[in-house]
Amino acid sequence: MQVSLDISLYPLNADYAQAILSFISQIESEPGIEVVRNTLSTQVFGDFHQIMQLMTKEIAQVFSEQPESVFVLKLVGQNRAPV
């Protein structure tokens, strides 16, 4: 099943920019999914199970390093990648 994920990360500390860029770089390195950066959020397109496994791993990593971080996720049950 193909899905679209819109994700925003809000690290509640002074070094927020580096934490966001590092998170995005990690998800961009995953083969088989499409990642689109925007000014307000990042969009991820691809297989549901692959994306959810990736998010579980990468969100846990952020929380282990910066537990004061906030994530906002929106999930759509189809691939809505830009054409």
UniProtKB/TrEMBL annotation:
Alphabetical list of Gene3D superfamilies matching this protein: 3.30.70.930
A Pfam entry, by short name: Ykof
Name listed for the protein in its UniProt record: Thiamin/hydroxymethyl pyrimidine-binding YkoF putative domain-containing protein
Residues of the Thiamin/hydroxymethyl pyrimidine-binding YkoF putative domain: 4-57
InterPro entries in alphabetical order: MTH1187/YkoF-like (IPR029756), Thiamin/HMP-bd_put_YkoF (IPR011522)
